[in-house]
Amino acid sequence: MPTYNFSAGPGVLPAPVLEEVRSQLLSYKDSGVSIVEMSHRSQAFMEVVRELEHRLRRLMDIPDTYAVLFLQGGATLQFSMVPMNLRESGRFAYLDSGTWSKKAIQDASRFGDVVIAGSSASSNYDTIPNWAGQIQDVDYLHITLNNTIEGTRYTTLPETDVPLVADVSSNILAEAIDVRRYGLLYAGAQKNIGPAGLTIVLIRRDLIIARDLPSYLAYSEHVDTLLNTPSTFSIYVAERVLAWIEAEGGVAEMERRNRLKSDRLYGALDASPLFRPLVTDTTCRSLTNIPFTTGNKETDETFRLYAEARGLIELGGHRSVGGLRASLYNAMPLEGVEWLVDAMHEFEQEGHDVSYKNV
Ligand SMILES: *Cc1c(COP(=O)(O)O)cnc(C)c1O
Fold first, then answer.
1. Comparing C-alpha atoms, which of 258, 260, 293 is closest to residue 274?
2. How far, in Å, are 249, 278, 279 from residue 317 at the CA level?
3. What angle do CA 181, 252, 73 make, to 5 degrees?
4. What is the C-alpha to C-alpha distance for residues 234 and 13, in angstroms, rounded to an integer?
5. Count of CB atoms within 10 A of residue 1's CB?
6. pTM (two decimals)
7. CA dist., res. 85 & res. 338, Å (int)
8. 99: Cβ below 6 Å to ligand 1?
9. What number does the ligand 1 atom closest to the CA of 148 have?
């Protein structure tokens, strides 16, 4: 029986990449040493870093006017590096679309005044916030492009003259992102790119200003160089994952597959007598993270265990939302979703109480 991993992060990686990593782990390209015991300044490793950047630039169509930084500290460190580095007036605008936005707002408020330009908190973040008109007189506007926990995503972007900053941790390389619309994009690697430990920042070069900050915390210290020892294993695997994406047809093909997978699951949820999706607004449903429920905590948990026994693992919802959640990152095959939908149908037919639907 195959195992399908629906984890929200660290998430599923392509099996052929993991096979390759295993085969290379003791002796990288017949060098007699492992990639994880090489100097990060060695020719072999620097080649990996260069390839990672080239592949990312090709896959996302990143112009030369943007720098690509390979950092650590996760998306969470970007919650403070962004305001520290982009601070001019000390006023920052945020759209509040869920748990990760709230955390970004909390950290930013240590460095200036946060203006909440819109929030969907009142509907429990089941949709994307509305914003009013042009957002002006702030250093930047921050959005969380895909809300990993709540399962929503932006399909239109706010019009603004200030740099748009986006947390793309859970949808980078899963769908087309027009880099030129943004001043800065950041993502932890562990959702869709590789093992945890690598954080990718794309920043428009004119926004990189030398700051009186501790060296690691200044973007200017990381431009076109490795300031210190990066997470070498994560970088190595990420480069291989990007090679896999390119061989499979690039981001457009990933998006096509992710639409197919999410449509399949949403179709089943919308038609189910037992399960229902938490995001009913069809204009802002995430392609990668799909929260759902039976409306009853015990039934949700029974189904989670039922699915787990069928090799469908990590379907528990985030602890702040509860219920169930399926994350359908690039490496999740359509078969995994078919198996999940089949398990849902069998579970329904086994006569689990359907009276909870829509309570
Ligand atoms: C997972 C996630 C984070 C947190 O990432 P870390 O790398 O653990 O700091 C932040 N934002 C979004 C949208 C996420 O999905």
1. 293
2. 31, 11, 13
3. 60
4. 12
5. 7
6. 0.96
7. 45
8. no
9. 15
**Angle between helix 74-86 and 99-108 (nearest 10):** 40
Any ligand 1 atom below 6 A from CB of 76: yes
Q: What is the CA radius of gyration of the chain?
A: 21
- Give the position of tokens 């930013």: 108
Nearest-CA residue for ligand 1 atom 3 is 75
Query: Is-contact 172 187, C-beta < 8 A?
Result: yes
Here the tokens at position 304 are 């989670």
Cis geometry, peptide bond prior to residue 10 (ω within 30 degrees of 0): yes
Question: Please, which residues bridge with residue 326 across strands?
Answer: 290
170 Cβ inside 6 Å of ligand 1 = yes
CA 303/CA 56 separation, integer angstroms? 38
User: How close is the Cα of 352 to the center of ligand 1, in Å?
Assistant: 35
* Length of the chain counted residue by residue: 359
Contact 25, 38 (CB under 8 A): no
CA 102, CA 18: separation in Å to the nearest integer? 34
Q: Closest by alpha carbon to 82, among 60, 110, 48?
A: 110
To the nearest 10 degrees (0 to 180), the angle between helices 232-248 and 43-60 is 40
Which tokens go with 91? Answer: 């006023």
Question: Phi and psi dihedrals of 227, rounded to 5?
Answer: -65, -45
Per-residue confidence in pLDDT tens, the chain, 359 aa: 899 999 999 999 999 999 999 999 999 999 999 999 999 999 999 999 999 999 999 999 999 999 999 999 999 999 999 999 999 999 999 999 999 999 999 999 999 999 999 999 999 999 999 987 778 899 999 999 999 999 999 999 998 999 999 999 999 999 999 999 999 999 999 999 999 999 999 999 999 999 999 999 999 999 999 999 999 999 999 999 999 999 999 999 999 999 999 999 999 999 999 999 999 999 999 999 999 999 999 999 999 999 999 999 999 999 888 899 999 999 999 999 999 999 999 999 987 755 544 44
Q: Is 144 in the pocket of ligand 1 (CB under 6 A)?
A: yes
Cα–Cα distance for residue pair 2/342, rounded to 1 Å: 14
In sequence order, what are the beta bridge partners of 184?
A: 165, 203
Closest CA to 203 of 140, 288, 147, 138: 140
Q: Is 191 a catalytic residue?
A: yes
